[in-house]
Structure formats: C-alpha cells, structure tokens
Amino acid sequence: MRAQHQAFFLSLFLARLADQVLLFLVPLVIFRMTGRVSWSGIAFTLETLPRYLCFPFLGALCDRYSPTRLMRVSQVLRAVVCVGGVAAYDLAGGIGWLIALSALCGMLTSQGVVAREVMLPQIFSSHRFEKVLSYSQLADQLGLVLGPMLAALLLSWWHWEWVVIAAAALFFVADLALAYWQKASAFAFTMPEGVHGTWFQPIRIALSHVLRLPGLKSVILLAAAENLVIGVTLATSAAMVTGVHQRSGGDYAGLQTAGACVTIAILLMTARLPIPRPILGFTAFCAISAGGVIAAASPGIAGYVFGFLLIVGFDKMFNVYIRSTRQKLIPARDYGKTTGVVILLNNMTQPLAGVAVGAFSTRFGAGAVILVLSLCMAGLGLLVALVPRLLKHRGDASAAASSHEG
Fold it and tell me: Where is the major localization of this protein (predicted)?
C-alpha cells in the first residue's frame, strides 16, 4: 500500500482510540454512580439504539455527498460534542449528560463508519478486499489496545470529565491526519450514478436488495445473531469484572487490552493468509458462541476471561467475513444506501441485548442472560445453515416426484 495511506489508517486509529476511551468510561462511570448492573444495561441501550437507527439515513447520505467530507465532519463534530457534554454536566449535573454525550458521539461514529465502508473499495481497488478490511480492523484494534490503557491511566490522574476532553483532542488530531491524507493522495471519490429522488426512495431500494439479493438475508441474520452476544458482553463486562467477580477498574482495563491484543493476532493471520471466506465466518461464529457460553457458565474470573477473549478476539474476524461478503453481493451504485440499512438490521440486536440485561439481570443474574443469548446465537446460526438445505432438499424431492409422475 502507498506510503500516504498511512495517514488514513492513522486517522482511523486515533478516532477509534477516542471512541474506545468513551466506551470504556460510560459503563464504568455509570456502574460506579449507581452500583447496579441493570442501569449499565439501560444506559447501553440508550447509547447504542440511536447510532443504529440512523444508519439508513447515513447510508443514503453517502450516495448523495462525498463520504470523505462526511467522515471529516463526523470527527470534528465528535470533538465538539465531547466539549459540549462536559460543559453541560458541569452546569446541570446528572448521568444523563454522559449518556447523551455517548449517544451523540455514537451517531457521529456511525456516520464515519458508513463513509469508510463506501470509500474503501475505491481507495484500495487494486488490493484483495479481505486484506484491506483486515488492516482497517487492525487500525481499530490498536485503538482498542491503547484505549482502555489510556483511559485507566488518565482516570488515575484526572476526573472523568477531563478524560472526555482528552478524547475530544484525539478526534481533532484524527481529522488533521485525514485532511493530510486527502491532500497527499489527491483521492477524489467517484459518486455513484443514479437518480436520488426523495429520502425514502434510497431506503426502498435498499430494502428491495435485502429481500431479493441471494445470500444477503443469511448474512444479515448471522450478523444479528452474533451481535446478541457482542451486545450482552459490552453491556455487562464492566459490571461482571468489577461487580460479580469483584476486580478493580485496572483489571477491567487489562481485560479489554488483552482482548484487543488477541484480536490483533487473529487479524494479522487473516490479513496474511488467504483463508476462504466461508471458513473465516464458520470459525469465528463458533468461537464467539462458545465464548458466550463459557463466560456465562464459569463461576470464577479465569473462565470469564477465557470466554471474553474468545468473543472479542473472533468478533473482528467475523466482521471481515460479513463486510467482504456484503461488498460482493451489493451493487456498487447502491452500496451506500444498502450498507446503511444492512448495518442497522445487523446491529439492532445489540440494544435488544441491553434491554434484556436491564430487564432480567437483577432477577436472574447477568450470567443467566449471557447464557440464554449465547444459546440463541447458536440456534439462529443453525437455522441459517439448515433451512436453505432443507428447502433445497424439498425442492429436489418435488422435482424428482414430478419427473417420476411424468
């Protein structure tokens, strides 16, 4: 890859680093303020639901306007929201400002994610797409490695408001790196052809692709199933480590860092080895499902750590499988709008997992919720694998019977 593309990946890394600082802070600060796992689940739902609901609109936006410009706007506005959220908290108080700050930054992160998805096939058109996605995920994972460490270090020195201000500074530097890459590479995005019409027309087109494109529904269902376990893990990990297993915030940061390191090792393998996409998907799906069961059923911290590492370690490998398969299936002219709708459908199960944590963890325990959702993931995966084969077998049997009668 060209040398100037290093600034592009640096921008991805810095933005992810800042995002991870915020993701680390929200559940930890809320659990410390309230002392209840259910509040962590509710806050997670309020944080994630808006970011996923806006994906279809953001996808249509990328088919109308330059995704490079949208990506830059996303990073600048995230910095502004961080500063504004801290100022509002100092004036009015309450955890609502922290949740609102996270929700707004999450929506703007969604804008950056869709813009990046639309840009990557054009920026790296001469490279194997699975390799490009692996390096993109590596930039994300480096942020995940350093994010918890940086957040924990800053929290040991400062109050959490100043840590949010530091995240704002990272978003601003990420935008500077993206601006440098844009100037050095002279990249100009080629807008897709077609009539845009009303804002509802792109959503109708995207839903038509979801219903009619062969294989796309299966990919969406698999991603939705996987996000049940990812969602419940994100919603409960802080409470499980610092509450159920009675470990410190530093231990929680260490767990997050270990998970990111495992993911980097897996992504390096994915980038360097030409592993067939179906094997990528099958391996990652099975590992994540098993990790959820192990994390839920283990009475001690060691078993939870092992299950957690399986979940977060193979999540990005599964992400590479989903994104590369999606890029092969969706027509280029409708890629932005369809990607936005597909990401929404993929991720709606994450806030549902947060609702399940908020509704049932107090009565049954967080471990029971994790176990049930992990089994649901495995069951949905089996349905996606078996139903097409059963339908094909039934069709072959009907055709054979008709031929015999004739």
Answer: membrane
